[in-house]
Design goal:
- The chain has about 550 residues and is mainly beta.
- It is globular, with a radius of gyration of 23 Å.
- It has a single domain, classed as Methylamine Dehydrogenase, Chain H (7 Propeller), CATH 2.130.10.
- It contains 5 helices and 39 strands.
- It is about 5% helix and about 35% strand.
- This is Carotenoid cleavage dioxygenase 8 homolog B, chloroplastic-like.
- It comes from Juglans regia (English walnut).
- GO terms for molecular function: metal ion binding; oxidoreductase activity, acting on single donors with incorporation of molecular oxygen, incorporation of two atoms of oxygen.
Length: about 550
Amino acid sequence: MASMSFSSIGNFISTAIVAVSNNPGSINKGFPFWSSNVNVSSKRNVRDLIVTHVATPTTPLPTVAPSWEKESVGNRMNHVAWTSVRQERWEGELIVEGEIPLWLSGTYLRNGPGLWRIGDYDFRHLFDGYATLVKLHFENGRLIAGHRQIESEAYKAAKKNKKLCYREFSEVPKSDNFLAYVGELANLFSGASLTDNANTGVVKLGDGRVVCLTETQKGSIVIDPNTLDTLGKFEYSDTLGGLIHSAHPIVTDKEFLTLLPDLVNPGYLVVKMEPGTNERKVIGRVNCRHGPAPGWVHSFPVTEHYIVVPEMPLRYCAQNLLKAEPTPLYKFEWHPDSKAFVHVMCKASGKIVASVEVPLFVTFHFINAYEEEDEDGRVTAVIADCCEHNADTTILEKLKLQNLRSFNGKDVLPDARVGRFIIPLNGSPYGKLEAAVDPNEHGRGIDMCSINPKFLGLKYRYAYACGAQRPCNFPNTLTKIDLVKKRAKNWYEEGAVPSEPFFVPRPGATEEDDGVVISMISQKNGGGYALLLDGSTFKEIARAKFPYGLPYGLHGCWVPKH
């Protein structure tokens, strides 16, 4: 495996920690201090790095650091990636080590669970945490960072009552008595008790609004990308109803597409929403081929003319939703006998042009899809790539916080691959699923992917994702996959947990990989930093240390400066 290893930043930078009030109207912004004797390690396999573009505060700042959350295994301090964020909000300019390209102008937003402790109660699963929104604002080679909790009703109620008040991914509020339990079940059917904790993704709509999302429809929350303020609920104005949707809609400046699973009559509504509106309109419906419920659709891909609807044998389970304690697969159930299918729908007509059986699969995230043409330009197949976990559902169990926090050096991360579906459009009842690249190229681990957005739905060559350097219990590298040469370039730093690598193309670029890759790194020593890699060479071009490490985050979006 190719490896580009960088030594961690030393303690040569002294940072002023910003004191932040819990009062949303009060925030002290500050900037890091630094020593005049900066000496960048010469061990890094990158071009010479320099420290640039740092504003000096005009008045001294208090060096107040909130205490660590007491979330530990035995007496061992947890990795900061799996530890609740230190404080509710912070903002400041960071020291840039290296050089940020001057063309990079805008804000990278990253969403994800960041608070797993309420009162004296510790949540159980990575996906339960209350949403922490992080921003990296790039302008003129400078970097201003900040983070803030998304003020969902679930978060505000938990903070006020110091206990869980809504149903999270694996958590259920404890009922005081049987009548309260019956009332809670009634609220579940109405959706009132489901969380609006928008801790999964963040998207910029075509009209400029920025919305944070999760699996529940009520968990759609509008935020200000500059201040990170919570502005309010994103209310859908249609009458389509339903409680859940795909956490990853397809969003461009021109379209918004998503899937609404139907748990009563197993299937999916495929819907679209025009920029500037809150009204979803139905394109068509896919009926499930088998199984008691629709398969989980955390994400789905599209091509230029088609929407690809996966029907995974990991299916929603209403009975598990009703239970007061988590089941092994939480809100889902594995039904291998129900088989697996992929459906292809025409965007324009809503007609299903293919519905094929495929090998069993488990995926959270699709990478991209495109149309394969013959010599005459006729579309013969749809190719859809995803981060596929070898039909192994144990990945959900591995994401329990207890498991993430108890890594002992053993290699326990389940294998994963770039799974490539080949879906023929000639009426064949079967499709194929194969590895697009030798999984050893990326350490047999793959998830949290991005591409050049200009190639969405088109034939493409490069994908960026988190891979693995074994032994590990979680993806711990960044990887650039070349789907033509079938090779990967990998970035790795010992003890680091990187979040999703997000690709931002250079304006005017003609090459697919001409741009930068942004990631946020959580370090085992409790620190963390923002990282920029060259999209082509995959070598480090800049990093900027946070005043303290941030918990692991999930998905992000880019908001360009206009």
